[in-house]
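=== RUN LOG ===
request id: a7f3
mode: sequence -> structure
chains: 1
length: 427
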Amino acid sequence: MKHKAFTTGLLDFIQQSPTPFHAVQNMVNTLENAGFQRLDEQAAWFVQEKQVQGRYFVTRNDSSIVAFDIKQPLLEQGIRMVGAHTDSPCLKVKPNPEIIKQGYLQLGVETYGGVLLNPWFDRDLSLAGRVSYVDEAGNMAHELVNWNKAIAVIPSLAIHLDREANDKRSINKQQHLPPVLMRVSDNKTSLNDLLLEQLNKESSKAVSILDYELSFYDVQPPAIVGLNDDFIASARLDNLLSCYTGLMALIHDDNSQNTLLVCNDHEEVGSVSAAGAQGNFLESVLQRLTGDNEAFARLMAASVMISVDNAHAVHPNFADKHDANHGPIINDGPVIKINANQRYASNSETSAMFKQWCEQADVPVQSFVVRSDMGCGSTIGPITANNLGVRTVDVGVPTFAMHSIRELGGTKDAAYLYQVLRQYFAA
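=== RESULT ===
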């Protein structure tokens, strides 16, 4: 697949996936179109070992997904796994969010994950997520909702009212972040009423709202930018880029290896949840495929995991924030992420394996190590390696402005990563 065509598909996927719920729903649609069958965690799966072979997927919390394609006996071949995460830093709506000030309706928000806050000001924002409600028959139902247009903004304070804004302004998350939605003439407007109206516009028969998980997002669509079209600018590159790349590698794989993709929610807040990497979702799926502890241990010993999460490209204006010998360059290929304190799961064996797959795929490869006097982020890689005991390498494509409302990557790098994952699944 040519890198321009791949990038177009990636940007369309991100545009259609404003929340982890929407990302998983879009992945489900793609998998079903590719012939994968849905499994239910509450139902029995495989009565006989031969039934394990085939293409399947299962979701948890509507925000995490495991998809796998089993072609050979698991204990003979092991399984080639790719891991990513569906969530991104954002602003989430509080349970009782309505704020009426100076005749404006605002919604109170919490910061989710390590949000870079300044870029959220003066953006055209919309709202999306999952809503639980009572329908006309009195039953509880769940639906995804998305306004799909700009309905809110967080206005900056004019510099005339804060002359030191460019030098000393700080952001108070409680006071300064509630987005403005509209002018109101009374205090009766509620988010639940707005949700009912939106749900019923989208053909749901909702009578009352029970609960919701809603996030604001920037409606500006992803774009290819740069004088020579070098870059992709988009929200949620971290980490929907990896989800999409792993998904495409999985569905287009036609080799004899057993393959699996896991995309977990809640990585940005530590992965401690039933749907997060510290939960038992992936482990539970793999145990159900093997049937007993002995077989599970043998399978993990024969398997490999590539944890895919974006890497920090060396920023030309802030090059001193990098180790001079480990500054990844955009469009120079995927990055192996290494940390002596195991914030990344890569070791010499798994790094060597990834380098060989890159060589076989004719793809350049880079390395990242954080400055020795700076802290290091982490991924689902060490968590998965710890939980499963599986050999793991942490990799990602280089990006600028990680955790901003609009991040910057390279037009070639996602396709490079796709080529390597295809090689990995074929090896």
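=== NOTES ===
The domain at 90-218 is CATH 2.30.250.10 (Aminopeptidase i, Domain 2).
The radius of gyration is 22 Å.
=== END ===
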